[in-house]
Amino acid sequence: MEYLGLSYLAAGFGAGLIVFGAALGIGKLATGALEGMARQPELSGDLRTAMIIAAALIEGFTFFALVVTFMLATKAPIQTSPEPVEQPAAEQAE
């Protein structure tokens, strides 16, 4: 249980990377969609729908990754049980 603090630190770092990546992805998605709407205003409804669906998928993946990250952070480390020591036969008879 001595490495539990490091797992919390790693989970925080992982969560930050996940959220940062999702923010970049949604930002690039919105940039592309808004540029497309500016160039062809008649397709703005279709572009908006596609943008919202893609943003929802990115957010869904982000939430899933966050859940996995925090589940791994709180997982107890594997502990091996010590092997039993056998006593000599002379000591067992007493």
Write up what this structure looks like.
It is rod-shaped, with a radius of gyration of 26 Å. The chain has a domain at 18-74: F1F0 ATP synthase subunit C (F1FO ATP Synthase, Up-down Bundle). Helix 1 runs antiparallel to helix 2 (44-73). The relative contact order is 0.14. The longest helix is centred in the first third of the chain and has 36 residues, at 4-39. The protein starts with a helix and ends with a helix. It has helices at 4-39, 44-73, 89-93. The protein has three helices and no strands.
Task: Give keywords.
94 residues, mainly alpha, F1FO ATP Synthase, 3 helices
- Round the mean pLDDT to the nearest integer and report it: 85
Query: Which structural class do the helices and strands define?
Result: mainly alpha
Backbone CA Rg: 26 Å
Helix content: over 70%
The count of DSSP E runs of length 2 or more, i.e. the number of strands, is: 0
User: How large is the share of residues in beta strands?
Assistant: under 5%
CATH class of one domain: Mainly Alpha
SS summary, helix count: 3
Distance between the termini: 39 Å
Please provide the ordered H/E string of secondary-structure elements: HHH
Largest sheet: none
CATH architecture of one domain: Up-down Bundle
At the fold tier of CATH, the topology name of one domain is F1FO ATP Synthase
CATH superfamily of one domain: F1F0 ATP synthase subunit C
